[in-house]
Amino acid sequence: MMPTGLVRPGPRRVAMAFVGLALVASACGRSSGSDGVVRIHTAHGVVAVQGPVADTDAARARGLRGRARLGPDEGMAFVFAGPTDQAFWMKDTVIPLSVAFWNRSGRIVAIRDMASCRSDPCRTYRPAVSYLGAVEVLRGWFEANGVRVGDRVELER
After folding, report:
1. Where are the alpha helices (DSSP H) in the chain?
2. CA 146 → CA 22, 48, 86, 111, 138, distances in Å?
3. Which of the listed residues 15, 35, 64, 104 has the most CB atoms within 10 Å of its CB?
């Protein structure tokens, strides 16, 4: 039973409402549009990763899903408003990736290698402590560039 005074919308109005919601969801799903550079200070010098910065829930949820390839020093930075313990996963991500998590002081607290996943359930990846940001790169990039837990991260937008 509908409350008094409300009119049941017709099929055309329902369809238009769904189209409108889809457009709003699509617009909200875009990342902030900013690219950045993650500089990692290692024992052997500074290495850098360039790429988009995911700083909204929608951009972080989408991540690198659907990308067919990454360049050798490309990746994606994930930035959170405050410390988090959210897990990463590789649902519909075809490129094998590695992820490094950094804390409030900009120190890497964990590095994880992640495997592609095509169907649920997908494995999740997270550090044992809370973190403030993360950067995904081609699997093995951190090892090849001498990046270790404890190295310092700087994000430049």
Report:
1. 11-29, 57-62, 141-144
2. 44, 12, 26, 12, 14
3. 64
Give the burial class of 130: count Cβ atoms within 10 A of its Cβ; 0-12 exposed, 13-18 middle, 19 or more buried: middle
CB 131 within 8 A of CB 77: no
What is the distance between the alpha carbons of residues 145 and 152, in angstroms, rounded to a whole number? 14
* Per-residue buried b or exposed e for 106-117, using 16+ beta carbons within 10 Å of the residue's own CB: eebbbbbebeeb
Does the reported pTM lie above 0.70?
Answer: yes
Q: Residue 106's closest CA among 44, 41, 32, 31?
A: 41
- Cα dihedral across residues 150, 77, 57, 105: positive or negative: positive
Q: Let me know: does 124 contact 89? Beta carbons within 8 Å.
A: yes
- Whether 7 has a pLDDT exceeding 70, the answer reads no
pLDDT digits (tens, 9 = 90+) for 65-84: 989 999 999 999 999 999 99
Q: Would you place residue 17 in the very low, low, confident or very high pLDDT band (cuts 50, 70, 90)?
A: very low
Domains of the chain, first to last: 31-156 (2.60.120.1140)
Question: What is the C-alpha separation between 75 and 136, in angstroms, rounded?
Answer: 5
